[in-house]
Amino acid sequence: MAAGKPVVAFHGGGATETVVEGVLRIEAECPRIVTFGCTVDYRLHVPAGVAVRIRTDRGSVAVSDMRGTVEVATQSGGVRLERTQGPVVVTTSAGNVDGVDLAASYLDATTGAGRIRLSLTEPPGRLGLRTGAGNIEVAVPVAAGGYRVDADAGAGRVDMGVEQNEGSSRTLVARSGAGNIAIRVR
Q1: What is the pTM of this model?
Q2: Which DSSP letter does residue 144 get?
Q3: Which end of the chain is more exposed for a tag (fewer CB within 10 A), N or C?
Q4: CA distances from 78 to 37, 100, 124, 139, 144 (A)
């Protein structure tokens, strides 16, 4: 597995790439005196079935066409998922979580401040969505036996458009402290 070189980098910024026991680690840091114009962008191509763990303090993350486990954590930045099939865990303190054409059997997405908008192509086994401040919009396929749904919008409203069944093995949990929740059939 090889890392892509920085697409754009501040000339004084430092980026290092190391592989230890098969794990690629990329570290990039801007000089403390630079307040604007320092960015480092990476585009990594890895086999679709590889487990991916991404951590960043600032910046957006996009993941596409993965079948292995995907874990993304960012302090400040949005996360975009496309055509991802493996188990997925996303955490961001401040940023939106968007996903299209997902087929994850397990997906957990949490943001402190931001919306969550997902569209799944296959019924998930478990979907856990939480935002402190933001809307949650989810489109799921019809599932035989429906979904066990637990939704709480706090200071918003819940719009439920899927078959609910307390005995279903498929669980949808959605929590928003200040925002609306819409769960609909795709």
Answers
A1: 0.88
A2: T
A3: N
A4: 19, 14, 22, 19, 33
DSSP state of 102: E
Residue that has been written with the tokens 């087929």 in this structure: 103
How many angstroms separate the CA atoms of 1 and 23, rounded? 9
Q: How far apart are CA 66 and CA 102, in angstroms?
A: 10
Please choose, from the candidates 55, 145, 66, 135, the residue with its C-alpha nearest in 3D space to the C-alpha of residue 91: 55
Residue 101 corresponds to which tokens in the numbers above?
Answer: 């054409």
Residues 31-41: pLDDT tens digits? Answer: 777 656 677 77
How many Cβ atoms from other residues are within 10 Å of residue 70's Cβ?
24
- Whole-angstrom distance, CA of residue 147 vs CA of residue 152: 16
- 103: DSSP letter: -
- State the Rg of the chain over Cα: 18
Strands 61-64 and 23-29: unpaired
Amino acid letter, residue 104: A
pLDDT in tens, 66-78: 999 999 999 999 9
> In the beta sheet, which residues pair with residue 17?
26
Cα(114)–Cα(122) distance, integer angstroms: 25
Nearest-angstrom CA–CA distance, 148 and 146? 7
